[in-house]
What we know:
Layout: E1 2-5, E2 14-17, E3 27-36, H1 39-45, E4 61-69, E5 81-84, E6 87-88, E7 102-103, E8 115-119, E9 123-125, H2 132-136, H3 139-152, E10 162-165, H4 171-182, E11 186-191, H5 194-202, E12 207-210, H6 216-224, H7 229-234, E13 237-242, H8 249-255, E14 256-264, H9 277-282, E15 286-289, H10 295-307, E16 314-319, H11 323-332, E17 338-342
Parallel strand pairs: 10-11, 10-13, 11-12, 13-14, 14-15, 16-17
Antiparallel strand pairs: 1-2, 3-4, 3-8, 3-17, 4-5, 5-9, 6-7
Protein name: Zinc-binding dehydrogenase
Domain Enoyl reductase (ER): 8-341
Amino acid sequence: MKAIQLSALHQPLAVVDVPDPTPAHGEVVIDLKAAGLNHRDVFVQQGLYPGIVLPVFPGSDGAGVVSAVGEGVDRSWLNCEVVINPGLNWGPNHVVNSPAFTILGMPTAGTFAEKIVIAQTNVYHKPTHLSFEEAAALPLAGLTAWRALMSRAGLSRQHPERVLVTGAGGGAALFALQFAVAAGAEVWVTSGSEAKLAKAKALGAKGGVNYKEADWHKTLLKLATNGDAEKSRAGYFDVIIDSAAGPDFAKLTQVAAPGGRIAFFGGTSGKITDVQPSVVFFKQLSIFGTTMGNDVEFGDMLRFVEKYQIRPVIDSVRPLADAQAAYDRMNAGGQLGKLVLSIA
């Protein structure tokens, strides 16, 4: 089979020929039809991820058809259209992953290949309304957003809440937006791109602001509260989902409503600075760190996606051999939605 290989840091990806995998006990082989790209893949190439082991076939997200099963696996899985949960060995504690937890694609061989062998417990039936390309865009970013929004921040599905998603345009942020809208929340967003703000509104966001403005948080509160000075002073958003951290994190505490919950899973803007402790404790704010999710959450996320017929936003689809071009686009930061590789 053909696969994409990263042999050394800061080196371009290469297409290589390797033997087809065979399943051991409890494993299946999947003929991959599509694979999704994540920032993690680019960070590994750039040497910005811990515990890098090379060479490796990258890729955490994938969807395809089961073509072989190992001993101990029900043969009814053969020929099933499936999507892969990229989290390996989460462990028995649903609150936090075990020390053995890893993510598919490094050090374990990933989805940028024509075939993959993986434990059957990491394989789920593909939501029927999704194409392979759409399904491949879902796992890592969708699971990250689901855990941040539903498990960690505890978005209510019984009582409508107000949600802020920062950095709309990235994969996980867009999923958080889509999940919150489907759950009945009033959703606002931030972005550095007017085109991405417009896309967020098309997906159901009530409004948004450009975070490149110096006082974007004041503009956001004015818009969201219809200029109500009292509401603006108190804060407005019950749930905030952030993927950047950095100095602007302090502004999130300003726009959070009393009793608000802030969940974050990224640090692309650097260290969190200038947060005033008094704002956090007088507002009774809860701040959660989060990453990925457990197996139960992955199943819950897929059922929610199918129930509400949610479709991932895809920026572009390229053939497997053009994986490096997808990396370059992600590194440039111009994508709107997920970058996907189509596998013949």
